[in-house]
Amino acid sequence: MPAAPFSFRLECIESPVGDMLVVADEQGRLRALGWADLEERLKRTLTVLYGDLKLQTRPVAPAIREALLAYLEGKLDAIDQIRIETGGTAFQRSVWQGLRSIPVGTTMSYGDFAARIGRPKAVRAVGHANGSNPICIVVPCHRLIGADGSLTGYGGGLPRKRWLLNHEAAAQGRLI
């Protein structure tokens, strides 16, 4: 008998840089966060991670919604309390967990990050895992930049990456 498909809640939340698609499970864990204009990309990512799944347009746990809105209002540490469940390989999960330890409002090169998580020779693999991150913002893949300080690759587009970094810097009283 085949396993039952995953069933997740899907809610759309407005943000200054476009509508966010928030995907959570019944236990109140964030499973994915992406952008409405890139919905197909998000669905492909979910299919890779979970296989057969069912998305129901229903509100996610209030704690997730409230934390995301607080982050957008400048309370940057609000997202630290969001429980996540990512799926993925052990290596991907280690990268995604490591991303959550990058202090808000700071950036790090892919190489420095790879060394930080104990994989200094895995810069390309780190980049690939970062690009496969299913939970933008909360798992802050936007905080990784090129070795020369340039903004490189972001699944939501470089204008959103720039906005997120500027938002975090401005909320801390700095400008980038």
TrEMBL record:
Catalytic reactions on record: a 4-O-methyl-thymidine in DNA + L-cysteinyl-[protein] = a thymidine in DNA + S-methyl-L-cysteinyl-[protein]; a 6-O-methyl-2'-deoxyguanosine in DNA + L-cysteinyl-[protein] = S-methyl-L-cysteinyl-[protein] + a 2'-deoxyguanosine in DNA
UniProt keyword GTP-binding, yes or no: no
Enzyme Commission numbers on file: 2.1.1.63
A Gene Ontology molecular function term of the record: methylated-DNA-[protein]-cysteine S-methyltransferase activity
This protein's UniProt keywords: DNA damage, DNA repair, Methyltransferase, Transferase
Primary enzyme class: transferase
Record flagged with keyword Methyltransferase: yes
GO biological process per UniProt: methylation
Sequence ranges assigned to domain Methylated-DNA-[protein]-cysteine S-methyltransferase DNA binding in this UniProt record: 90-169
PROSITE patterns attached to this UniProt entry: MGMT
Official protein name in the record: Methylated-DNA--[protein]-cysteine S-methyltransferase
Species the sequence originates in: Steroidobacter flavus
